[in-house]
Amino acid sequence: MNKMKVLNEINEKPMDINQLCRKNILELQPYSCAREEYQGKQAIFLDANENPYDTGYNRYPDPYQREVKKKLGSLKQVATENLVLGNGSDEIIDLLVRSFCEPARDNMIVFSPGYAMYEVCAAVNQVEVRKLVLTADFLPDWEEMWRQVDKRTKLIFLCTPNNPTGKVIPLVQIEQLVQTFRGLVVVDEAYIDFTREKSAVNLLQKYRNVVVLQTLSKAWGMAGLRLGMAMADPAVVGILNKVKAPYNISSLTQQTVLALLDRYDEFQKRRDEIVSERGRLLTELRKLNLFQQVYDSEANFILVITPACRKLYQYLIERQLVVRLRDMPPLIPGGIRMTVGTKEENNRLLEVLKQYK
Ligand code: PMP
Predict the structure, then answer these.
(1) Which DSSP string corresponds to 200-253?
(2) pLDDT recorded at residue 11
(3) For the chain, which end, N or C, has fewer CB atoms within 10 Å of the first or last residue's CB respectively?
(4) Nearest residue (CA) to ligand 1, atom 2
(5) Is 64 found in the same domain as 108?
(6) 57 pLDDT exceeds 60?
(7) Is this model's pTM higher than 0.90 or not?
(8) pLDDT tens digit string along 65-86?
(9) Distance, CA 80 to ligand 1 centroid (Å)?
């Protein structure tokens, strides 16, 4: 199907987020939390079957994480109405598929090599995935993509910087897609803090159909707390809020995140250190002459290629160095992804690699 035909068929109606949503979700009467009507702290709470004795955690957390959203909102320069928080951004990926794709009818587009969770969530929800191989320079082939889009394509997932290639998709290309596609463009920016490229968050003011995913798991160093976010149109936010479990972010996570987000200087310092170590690792890895290819990266990892990837992986494991095999033909056969560690960890990695025969 050519691009214009698709556009003509889909463009008949103006963009309406509710029309993209599954009908049963649109009609869903969400679970209402006991304390939605009362937001003070002074009352006697006999509404939620909690234990009255204080353990520090005897009360349910705020289902809408208002305090955390206030702080994140000002950090990311978005209104709290544009924010949904998830138990990691993985939860939000699942929420998007569940809310917008009708099982066994709708489809979504992903690119390969890419982050595997999009497909896992699709499979769990019985949603067809149209998986397109990136071009040799690791960018989407837009022409080919348009051939795959049809009336039942609800979501297009872009990952930038991409896992595992570390490549950024220029924001102008993302904007063109958002402008043209009549479904949701999900831009996964888990690694955005490691690049100078601008965030797609800037598109939110102009377009209703862009959803930007970010996480505190990477540059912020809070993977163990599980906090991811979607920044999106309030209509998308409303839908995801209806579908999510009411208390999806624990009190412990909310409190800890609030405290750690204040340490902006520390965040910046560590992030800068990782970026600088990434540069050093790239140079040193290239000098080793061990790899067919050591790819540039805008994230906190480096992708290398060697036909002996399994042997090398085993060699590293035996020396307590754990990397990730990303042997993903056709584009990156023999791929290994190495996360940038501390200076000492990276030195150890290089030293062990130098001894490899
Ligand atoms: N998106 C990408 C591209 C990732 O690499 C990851 C983590 N590996 C995630 C999302 C999920 O992150 P989290 O659930 O920790 O927020």
Answers:
(1) GGGGTTT-SSEEEEEESSSTT--GGG--EEEE--HHHHHHHHHHS-TT-S-HHH
(2) 45
(3) C
(4) 190
(5) yes
(6) yes
(7) yes
(8) 999 999 999 999 999 999 999 9
(9) 22
Q: How far is the CA of 202 from the centre of ligand 1 (A)?
A: 21
Residue 272's CATH number:
3.90.1150.10
* 90 within ligand 1 shell (Cβ under 6 A): yes
Ligand 1, atom 14: closest residue by C-alpha: 88
Per DSSP, what are the bridge partners of residue 337? 303, 324
- Domain boundary residue, one of 261, 289, 319: 261
Q: Please indicate, yes or no, whether residues 114 and 236 belong to a single structural domain of this protein.
A: yes
Q: Sign of dihedral through CA atoms 255, 258, 260, 263?
A: negative
Nearest alpha carbon, ligand 1 atom 13: 88
Residues 269 and 257 in one domain: no
Domain region containing 292:
265-354
Which of 230, 261, 292 represents a domain boundary (last residue)?
Answer: 261
For the cut 90, the answer to whether the pLDDT of residue 243 exceeds it is yes
Which among 93, 95, 115, 192 is the best mutation to test ligand 1's pocket, defined by most ligand atoms within 8 Å of the CB?
A: 115
Q: Would you state the pLDDT for residue 174?
A: 98
> Does position 9 have pLDDT exceeding 50, yes or no?
no
Cα-Cα-Cα-Cα dihedral of 83, 153, 138, 180, to 10°?
-80
Q: Is the CB of 225 under 6 A from ligand 1?
A: no
Judgement on whether residues 300 and 202 belong to the same structural domain of the protein: no
Q: Which helix (H) or strand (E) holds 130?
A: strand 128-133
203 Cα–ligand 1 center, Å: 21
- Among candidate residues 93, 98, 62, 96, the one with its CA nearest the CA of residue 80: 62
Quote the tokens at residue 310.
């399994």
